[in-house]
Amino acid sequence: MKYIEQLPQKTSGSITFYINSGLNSKKDYYYKVRGYTVLDSKKVYSSKVK
What residues have CB less than 8 Å from 49, skipping those under 6 apart? Predict the structure, then answer.
């Protein structure tokens, strides 16, 4: 299993797009996503979701 910490991103206004290129259309891909906020200059992460 391959893990990618963060995908390349582009922003347009208030929308952020994450780019994942070079994928095989005959293969399934799964992502675990989590958000974060900055509290006292430290990142506080949410739980991972599927």
Answer: 32, 33, 34
